[in-house]
Specification:
The structure holds two protein chains of two kinds. Helices cover 0% and strands 55% of the residues of chain A. Chain A has no helices and eleven strands. Chain A is an all-beta fold. Chain A starts with a strand and ends with a strand. Chain B contains no helices and eleven strands. Chain B has strands spanning 4-7, 10-13, 19-25, 31-37, 43-50, 53-57, 64-70, 73-78, 87-94, 103-104, 108-112. In chain B, a hairpin with a 2-residue loop joins β5 and β6. The chains are: A mainly beta, B mainly beta. Chain A binds chain B through residues 32, 34, 38, 41-46, 49, 87, 89, 93, 96-99, 101, 103-104, 106, and chain B through 4, 40-45, 48, 56, 90, 92, 97-98, 100-107.
């Protein structure tokens, strides 16, 4: 129940395309769902986050879609750019205030 | 002005040695964490401290001992290093326990030979 399952493990997208990364969870007590972006040699950094009372949140080219009934959420990157190439992690905050992390998705944007 | 800084950035050492990694945050946060990231990029929380008090201690060998001398510092000491300890270790902080944003340091790449 504490898992967050993330897919795909890796993703290659052409420049200008849409990148989509999916996550699924089981624990309905999770109440905060962030996405982190990690560049090589750096620590993860918060990209965008959502709470389960909304179905979508958009910040620039990045959008989180949230489906509470299906217990799924996804990150969409519109007009993907080579500078978006990074590892992306979804996560969920549990009732003990602990972040439960997905396994990560390595995204490569081809010029 | 780095928000979460950890030293050293790279650490190469022999099996059986004892080593420490230092972490400092200048954000005024109450909560600090240590994470381990393996070669497959999987992030695993090791410890969580809130106001210098240990909150979370995941299943981590007792060779790993965190120490928080004050709210701004959380150091990690590792005894009797093993090959399997090779990984990148990240320190992080958040404003409070369950804070909506965790700020990570740049990581310490530990290689045990």
């Amino acid at each position: 129940q504490q898992q967050v399952k993330q897919s795909p493990q890796s993703l290659i997208v052409q420049k200008g395309g849409i990148s989509i990364i999916n996550c699924a969870y089981e624990n309905t007590a999770f109440d905060y769902f962030p996405w982190y972006q990690q560049f090589p040699g750096k620590g993860p950094a918060l990209l965008i986050a959502i709470r389960p009372d909304v179905s979508e949140k958009k910040e620039g080219r990045f959008t989180i879609s949230f489906n509470k009934s299906a217990k799924q959420f996804s990150l969409h990157i519109m007009d993907s750019q080579p500078g978006d190439s990074a590892t992306y992690f979804c996560a969920a905050l549990d009732s003990n205030y602990q972040l439960i992390w997905g396994a990560g998705t390595k995204l490569i944007i081809k010029p | 002005d780095t928000a979460v800084s950890q030293t050293p950035k790279y650490l190469v050492t022999q099996m059986g040695n004892d080593k420490s990694i230092k972490c400092e945050q200048n954000l005024g946060h109450d909560t600090m964490y240590w994470y381990k990231q393996d070669s497959k990029k999987f992030l695993k929380i090791m410890f969580s401290y809130n106001n210098k008090e240990l909150i979370i201690n995941e299943t981590v060998p007792n060779r790993f001992s965190p120490k928080s001398p004050d709210k701004a510092h959380l150091n990690l000491h590792i005894n009797s290093l093993e090959l399997g300890d090779s990984a990148v270790y990240f320190c992080a902080s958040s404003a409070q326990l369950g804070g909506t944003e965790a700020f990570f340091g740049q990581g310490t790449r530990l290689t045990v030979v």
